[in-house]
Automatic annotation (TrEMBL):
<keyword id="KW-1133">Transmembrane helix</keyword>
<dbReference type="InterPro" id="IPR039421">
    <property type="entry name" value="Type_1_exporter"/>
</dbReference>
<keyword id="KW-0472">Membrane</keyword>
<feature type="transmembrane region" description="Helical">
    <location>
        <begin position="291"/>
        <end position="309"/>
    </location>
</feature>
<feature type="domain" description="ABC transmembrane type-1">
    <location>
        <begin position="27"/>
        <end position="320"/>
    </location>
</feature>
<dbReference type="Pfam" id="PF00664">
    <property type="entry name" value="ABC_membrane"/>
</dbReference>
<dbReference type="InterPro" id="IPR011527">
    <property type="entry name" value="ABC1_TM_dom"/>
</dbReference>
<dbReference type="InterPro" id="IPR003439">
    <property type="entry name" value="ABC_transporter-like_ATP-bd"/>
</dbReference>
<dbReference type="InterPro" id="IPR027417">
    <property type="entry name" value="P-loop_NTPase"/>
</dbReference>
<feature type="domain" description="ABC transporter">
    <location>
        <begin position="354"/>
        <end position="588"/>
    </location>
</feature>
<protein>
    <submittedName>
        <fullName>ABC transporter ATP-binding protein</fullName>
    </submittedName>
</protein>
<dbReference type="InterPro" id="IPR017871">
    <property type="entry name" value="ABC_transporter-like_CS"/>
</dbReference>
<dbReference type="GO" id="GO:0016887">
    <property type="term" value="F:ATP hydrolysis activity"/>
</dbReference>
<keyword id="KW-0067">ATP-binding</keyword>
<keyword id="KW-0812">Transmembrane</keyword>
<dbReference type="InterPro" id="IPR036640">
    <property type="entry name" value="ABC1_TM_sf"/>
</dbReference>
<feature type="transmembrane region" description="Helical">
    <location>
        <begin position="156"/>
        <end position="174"/>
    </location>
</feature>
Length: 593
């Protein structure tokens, strides 16, 4: 797929680059549009021939072909009229079918390609952009492009066909007055191009504003609980009104310009039609032009110029589509900075030996959060990492999963550098249970089985029992078929946490990461989770990040982090004897001081 980035490449060219596989269908649809317009333009010519038969009878154009009988000439005209109308209808059916299906196909594939590409981008990309803005590209911008392909492309082709066919007919039938019909066209074309250039930045601004508006709506709907709890409804309504007003004003500026197009074009058409009506009529009266030719020209000048009034709507669609195309193609052109790796790592062969070797890392435009850190986690052992907020604990997890790349140093799994490992194989061998559990809108069973899509019902229930989730699940209205709601909002924090643990158990990874897995639950739930974790960490490499020291006191080794460095390590008892940071934390949490 060729997607070029930058202002030097026109968005229409970028669209053609993307849609090269549809070229045959585009050509076929274009041919049908052209033929439909050719047959649509034929009736005025048939009317002119009919008038020629009425006026000249045996000397008419058809009579010169050998049919002298007037009735016979009208029968031929009737046959030609029927064929013309039938073929016009046939080609209209096919161009509608082809253009609309093409629009749907490109819309479908473009959305899938954009979403697929989006999934491959690093987390930093999403941290710099709003969810609503990305949703606007995947939904609204793709739909805008579909609307143009559905209608606008055919309109442009048919207008061009009209100009070529009728312009040619004028010069053949009446070269002396042809210039009268052609004269306004350069002004119309020039006006269209000028309008296009003026509209382009206005519609780019419209797309930008709708992205911001969608971002606000997405944010507010996701945070509706916070809005309600802080009684911020009026405040958020005012902020939404501001964004919506900015979008409305942006559209108003574009509409003010695009709405002026058709009235201006009408004046040019009126001038051309009036001049042709007078001077063409004088030519017919003087006998220098036949009545039939004159009638054809009067019809044709309208057919030539009136469709140009639709250029305003067509260019409106075109500019909206090109603004959307740029946003979509810019997304597709965003480079994937994380190399996928090429060394396979079958899950069944992973021992789970993890090592951080002199690792340093900093988030973009920020001070280093991890500096020259070295840490060895033997296969099958449970280690814990504790420390104050912002010390870099969760960042280690993100680096191990390659959500971000290390700035310097290496991380290895079973002695192989992460950058060399196949990225999907690496993530398949790691199970993550985080503090911020994400459940998808669906059933309990679907959420437990997420990632293990071929799991049986029995396996899902077994995983739930190990996670001590089975009991509360069976008390739900439809037990395992209960809908959990968006982000699991119908369940409590502890219930969501246990479902997340069941999901990790079902995945059965050789490396398990528990990132604050019990920080937001009550004591009873914590005890239940602790019991389940004790069972699933046996013979499995486990990394537990915790604030609650009671949940990790039995770890094989506990590491204390401060400011991106490991400052203490040892077992629970050893660390207490050191009277250091860990001992101070333990005394605070155990209520000793």
């Amino acid at each position: 797929m060729l997607i070029r980035r930058g202002n030097s490449v026109h968005p229409f060219q970028r669209l053609l680059d993307y849609g090269h596989e549809y070229r045959q269908q585009i050509w076929l649809a274009s041919v049908c549009s052209i033929l439909n317009k050719v047959f649509d333009l034929a009736p005025p010519a048939l009317i002119g021939i009919a008038l020629d038969v009425v006026v000249k009878k045996q000397d008419s154009i058809i009579a010169q072909l050998g049919v002298k009988d007037t009735f016979g000439q009208f029968l031929i005209l009737a046959f030609l009229t029927a064929v013309t109308w039938i073929l016009e209808s046939v080609f209209q059916y096919f161009y509608n079918l082809l253009w609309r299906n093409l629009a749907q196909s490109i819309q479908h594939n473009l959305r899938l390609d954009a979403y697929s590409h989006l999934q491959e981008l690093e987390l930093a990309f999403f941290e710099e952009r709003s969810t609503g803005g990305l949703m606007s590209i995947l939904s609204d911008d793709v739909n805008q492009l579909e609307r143009f392909l559905d209608v606008g492309a055919n309109d442009i082709i048919q207008v061009l066909t009209t100009i070529v066919v009728i312009g040619g007919a004028f010069f053949i039938l009446a070269p002396s007055v042809a210039w009268m019909a052609i004269l306004p066209m350069p002004f119309i074309v020039f006006g269209s191009v000028a309008f296009q250039k003026l509209l382009a930045p206005r519609y780019a601004d419209v797309r930008e504003k709708v992205g911001l508006l969608n971002g606000r709506l997405s944010n507010n709907i996701s945070g509706i609980t916070t809005i309600k709890s802080f009684t911020a409804e009026d405040y958020e309504k005012a902020r939404l009104r501001q964004d919506s007003e900015a979008y409305r004003q942006s559209n108003t500026k574009a509409i003010a310009l695009s709405a002026a197009f058709i009235p201006l074009i009408r004046m040019l058409i009126l001038t051309a039609f009036t001049v042709l009506l007078i001077f063409g009529g004088m030519e017919a009266v003087a006998g220098r032009m036949s009545v039939g030719t004159y009638s054809v020209l009067v019809f044709l000048v309208q057919l030539l110029l009136w469709p140009l009034t639709r250029l305003g709507d067509t260019f409106d669609l075109y500019q909206r589509a090109m603004a959307s195309t740029n946003r979509i193609m810019d997304l597709l052109a965003t480079q994937i900075t994380i190399h996928p790796g090429n060394v396979p790592l079958p899950v069944e062969t992973v021992r789970g030996d993890v090592e951080f070797q002199n690792v340093s890392f900093a988030y973009q435009d920020r001070q280093p959060i991890i500096e020259n850190l070295s840490l060895h986690i033997p296969a099958g052992k449970t280690i814990a990492i504790v420390g104050s907020t912002g010390s870099g604990k969760s960042t280690l997890v993100k680096l191990l999963l390659r959500f971000y790349e290390v700035r310097s140093g290496n991380i290895t799994v079973d002695g192989i550098k992460l950058q060399d490992l196949n990225l999907r194989d690496l993530r398949r061998c790691i199970g993550l249970v985080s503090q911020d559990v994400f459940l998808f809108h669906g059933t309990v069973a679907e959420n437990i089985g997420y990632g293990s899509f071929d799991a049986t019902e029995k396996e899902i229930i077994t995983a739930a029992k190990i996670a001590e989730a089975h009991e509360f699940i069976t008390r739900l209205p439809q037990d395992y078929e209960t809908i959990v709601g968006e982000r699991g909002q119908k369940l409590s924090g502890g219930q969501r946490q246990r479902i997340a643990i069941a999901r990790a158990i079902l995945k059965n990874p050789p490396i398990l990461i528990l990132d604050e897995a019990t920080s937001a639950v009550d004591n009873e739930t914590e005890a239940a989770i602790a019991r389940s974790l004790k069972r699933i960490t046996v013979n499995r490499t486990t990394i537990a990040i915790a604030h609650r020291l009671s949940t990790i006191r039995n770890a094989d080794c506990i590491y204390v982090m401060e400011h991106g460095k490991l400052v203490e390590s040892g077992t629970h008892e050893q660390l207490l004897e050191k009277n250091g940071i860990y001992e101070s934390l333990w005394r605070v949490q155990s209520g000793l001081k």
